[in-house]
Amino acid sequence: SSLKAFRSSFLDFIADPFYVSELESVRYIPDGLLVLEDGKIKEIGTYDSLQHKYKEISITAYPGMLIMPGFIDTHVHFPQLEMIASYGEQLLTWLNKYTFPTEGKFKDKTYAQKVAAIFLDELLKNGTTTALVFATVHPESVDAFFEEANRRHLRTIAGKVMMDRNAPDFLTDTAETSYQETKALIQKWHKKDRLLYAVTPRFAITSTNEQLQIAGRLLQEFPDVYLHTHISENVDEVAFVKQLFPESQGYLDVYDRAGLVGDRSVFAHGVHLTDAEFHRLSQANAAIAFCPTSNLFLGSGLFRIETAKSKDYPVKVGLGTDVGGGTSVSLLQTANEAYKIAQLRQQKLSPFQTLFLATLGGAKALNLEAKIGNFNPGKEADFVVLDPRATPLMAFRNSDATPTSLEELAERIFTLVIMGDDRAIHATYIMGGLVMGNG
Ligand code: GUN
Ligand code: FE
């Protein structure tokens, strides 16, 4: 077996800071040692307490840095990377004008492979080590994505988009072909190495009820795959869904009637969900991907995170970049905008809460808490080395002293969230191996 160790400051979460105090949820080790064995966490503790046990192994030191678990993006579209920052529209017109023509290109597997490689390298550069990803309607786009993800040994979840109406002909499947193609892709990719599959109807507008029922059938036939879709993002979208499914009680009920609301379901956005819908998500132990940069950029609205994170009806929440509706691949920048959306609603997200959402909160939302999300022994060693003094302004803002209290640490990490982006990612490690940045 191969042992490796890292000496630096370490921050991770051992409980949810929305529900318990920061003293109970934050694990901070100012001078720590992280020990890995065969790409997994063996132990973590203070340098002083552990160094005598590991005298013979070489230690990689990152003085002045802060090491955290890799960031988790709970909703993103890899084919939309190239159309980030498309001007002037809200959701439904944005889809028709920019998104659908772009996604049409991904029938070409070579093209899809090229974009997938650029996309994944961009994620790693930004410290994102796991993502839940939309491909396009084309099975080739899923093959291309999973091949590139597997080449990088990433724990990623993805799926072929199912869409059989209200979209151009070049981008639609049928209920029957979406069933056959999805089934074949699940059999090919689900649980291959670190890869996992998500059944991915785009949203209620682009699927017939027949296709949604078929998505539900796939979930029954393959009980451990995910369900990934969009919900209640935009006011016009919600109204259109009401018109398309007059027999349903509401948007979530459309999915519920197809058997799509369960503990492995991830719904992107949820900006316009009702209280009753939040309660139903809580009861089903389903998750929401909060996509702040996208909700601002597309003018969709302000997500009610305090309702999702209520103690009476807790809903699992992760952060999603939602690129290309979102404007940044960086989860630091996504957390920054999440904080500002809370501000606009007279709510407060603490520095620790924002970074919880980007790490352990995301792992919980994706039901991957047993594998990733913090530095507990046995977990997979995907982590990021953050540089709190990455830019001249950040170095001016942050002293070179290591924070010694949670209060000092909160101030330090808040500057990372508000000012940080890919420049603050000093290095990214996958399964204990350096994949991006400085060793
Ligand atoms: N709803 C349905 N499709 C999409 C998409 O591609 N992006 C966003 N943001 N919302 C959607
Ligand atoms: Fe999206």
Automatic annotation (TrEMBL):
Pathway note: Purine metabolism; guanine degradation; xanthine from guanine: step 1/1
Gene Ontology CC: one annotated term: cytosol
Gene3D superfamilies linked to this entry: Metal-dependent hydrolases, Urease, subunit C, domain 1
Species annotation: Chroococcidiopsis thermalis (strain PCC 7203)
Residues of the Amidohydrolase-related domain: 67-434
Pfam families in the record: Amidohydro_1
Reaction catalysis annotation: guanine + H2O + H(+) = xanthine + NH4(+)
Protein name, as recorded: Guanine deaminase
Statement: the UniProt record of this protein carries the keyword Hydrolase: yes
